[in-house]
Amino acid sequence: MLKNKIQFLLNDRLISLSDINPNTSILQYLRSCTGKSGTKEGCASGDCGACTVVTVEYAGGDLRYKSLNACISLLPSLHGKQLLTVEDLQDGDKLHPVQKAMVDFHGSQCGFCTPGFIMSLFALHKNNPEPEKAQTLEALAGNLCRCTGYRAIIDAASAAKNHGPDQFDRNKRNTIAALAKIQKTSLLKLSEGDQVAYSPSSLSELTDLMLAHPNARIIAGGTDIVLEITQMMKSLGTIIYVGNVPELQEFEESDAQFTLGAALPFSDFTPSIATHYHEFGEMIERIGSLQIRNQGTLGGNIGNASPIADTPPVLIALDAKLNLRLGNKNRIISIEDYFIDYKKTSQQKSEFIQSIIIPKAKENSYLKVYKISKRFDDDISAVLAAFNLVIEDDVVKSVRIAFGGMAGTPKRAIKCEKELIGKPWTQASIENGMQALEQDFTPMSDVRASANYRMVVAKNLLQKAFIEITQPTINTGVVQYA
């Protein structure tokens, strides 16, 4: 049954929305429709964190708190969740312990960024009452401050550890009951004029919608596509929000492979992937901020077809497969065959990515992943390299190498691979492979890097992989995992 409204909790108040533009961001809604102006707009692109809010979902028998960027999150994504803002944290006339710590340790100066910092710390402490410093830094990496400096804020985060129950803990049972009353098994529609968003609750509903609306824009996290609204002042037309489709949220692990639903957020699957592919996991932790990874998805990172997307080169090197669905039929293709040209893919009209299949490592295999960007955290790659090798008795038995930022698509280095396969794992072979990269790629110059820089870096990353594999005790990074 189609329902022409979405429902969510704004703190403890049930909100029902129907006649509202689905292109409206959570930030716009809060500031323009509710009078909650504590949440700020700094960048409108998910970079600065001034707009950070927290959503709460009931999953796995407990409430899960997630920080996200309200400036690039659309209203349809709120259905069935609780939305918390900085105004909700004060308990009567008492500041929340996180707020009080920011005051006590002088963590605010002009105050513009402070609500975002507080909400990031709030989510951190709700999920982990005693976070380690590295976890605190990860939680705050997506929040920028131009005047206070970060030491006072980090001190405040430490002081707020293990602060005991707050009003959200006391109201937990009521929150779970209120969320349970919101129907999440119906097809939803939110519209105003010719701007329409559908939110299917099953794979079959999604399939039917895609057949009926072949030009619809699919959104899961929306961390890239929503910039068309906030930066380019466009409207997305017909939107299909897939965050409520259970089949696209699945995660399965077998002896041979991982299968990830296309709409599963990065933060949900990264710990599992990292146990098997450590460097892949560490690279994912450099995709945007925690707020971005709480929303962004592997399916979106692939489907956007950007030549500088971070995960496709790694997935190509791992020989991952895509499970594509059109109508009631599925087809499985190599991810390498998905990318045709700049921003063009082999995906057909009404077809969508249902899941991604990642093989597990073979014996004697090495996966090396390197991301080169101007900033270490929360930045776009100039070059991303992935090397997947099987080496036995100092001979390269298998090799797959892929790069991002070196061509109009994420692309394998076929000529380089031919110089390595079946050859001794020696410096001479590496030098031949480095020269072959000039036949594989003709990179371009842009604001992130020159063509010459990209080629030199690509060659040096192959050399870096050789050094790290042959001499694992040598630290070649500016930090332990760069």
From TrEMBL:
<dbReference type="InterPro" id="IPR016167">
    <property type="entry name" value="FAD-bd_PCMH_sub1"/>
</dbReference>
<dbReference type="GO" id="GO:0071949">
    <property type="term" value="F:FAD binding"/>
</dbReference>
<dbReference type="Pfam" id="PF03450">
    <property type="entry name" value="CO_deh_flav_C"/>
</dbReference>
<feature type="domain" description="FAD-binding PCMH-type">
    <location>
        <begin position="190"/>
        <end position="363"/>
    </location>
</feature>
<keyword id="KW-0479">Metal-binding</keyword>
<keyword id="KW-0408">Iron</keyword>
<keyword id="KW-0285">Flavoprotein</keyword>
<dbReference type="Pfam" id="PF01799">
    <property type="entry name" value="Fer2_2"/>
</dbReference>
<dbReference type="Pfam" id="PF00111">
    <property type="entry name" value="Fer2"/>
</dbReference>
<feature type="domain" description="2Fe-2S ferredoxin-type">
    <location>
        <begin position="4"/>
        <end position="89"/>
    </location>
</feature>
<dbReference type="InterPro" id="IPR002346">
    <property type="entry name" value="Mopterin_DH_FAD-bd"/>
</dbReference>
<dbReference type="InterPro" id="IPR036010">
    <property type="entry name" value="2Fe-2S_ferredoxin-like_sf"/>
</dbReference>
<dbReference type="InterPro" id="IPR006058">
    <property type="entry name" value="2Fe2S_fd_BS"/>
</dbReference>
<dbReference type="InterPro" id="IPR016169">
    <property type="entry name" value="FAD-bd_PCMH_sub2"/>
</dbReference>
<protein>
    <submittedName>
        <fullName>Xanthine dehydrogenase small subunit</fullName>
    </submittedName>
</protein>
<dbReference type="InterPro" id="IPR016208">
    <property type="entry name" value="Ald_Oxase/xanthine_DH-like"/>
</dbReference>
<dbReference type="InterPro" id="IPR036884">
    <property type="entry name" value="2Fe-2S-bd_dom_sf"/>
</dbReference>
<dbReference type="GO" id="GO:0004854">
    <property type="term" value="F:xanthine dehydrogenase activity"/>
</dbReference>
<dbReference type="InterPro" id="IPR016166">
    <property type="entry name" value="FAD-bd_PCMH"/>
</dbReference>
<dbReference type="InterPro" id="IPR005107">
    <property type="entry name" value="CO_DH_flav_C"/>
</dbReference>
<dbReference type="InterPro" id="IPR014307">
    <property type="entry name" value="Xanthine_DH_ssu"/>
</dbReference>
<dbReference type="Pfam" id="PF00941">
    <property type="entry name" value="FAD_binding_5"/>
</dbReference>
<dbReference type="InterPro" id="IPR036683">
    <property type="entry name" value="CO_DH_flav_C_dom_sf"/>
</dbReference>
<dbReference type="InterPro" id="IPR012675">
    <property type="entry name" value="Beta-grasp_dom_sf"/>
</dbReference>
<dbReference type="InterPro" id="IPR036318">
    <property type="entry name" value="FAD-bd_PCMH-like_sf"/>
</dbReference>
<dbReference type="InterPro" id="IPR012175">
    <property type="entry name" value="Xanth_DH_ssu_bac"/>
</dbReference>
<dbReference type="GO" id="GO:0005506">
    <property type="term" value="F:iron ion binding"/>
</dbReference>
<keyword id="KW-0830">Ubiquinone</keyword>
<keyword id="KW-0560">Oxidoreductase</keyword>
<dbReference type="InterPro" id="IPR001041">
    <property type="entry name" value="2Fe-2S_ferredoxin-type"/>
</dbReference>
<keyword id="KW-0274">FAD</keyword>
<dbReference type="GO" id="GO:0051537">
    <property type="term" value="F:2 iron, 2 sulfur cluster binding"/>
</dbReference>
<dbReference type="InterPro" id="IPR002888">
    <property type="entry name" value="2Fe-2S-bd"/>
</dbReference>
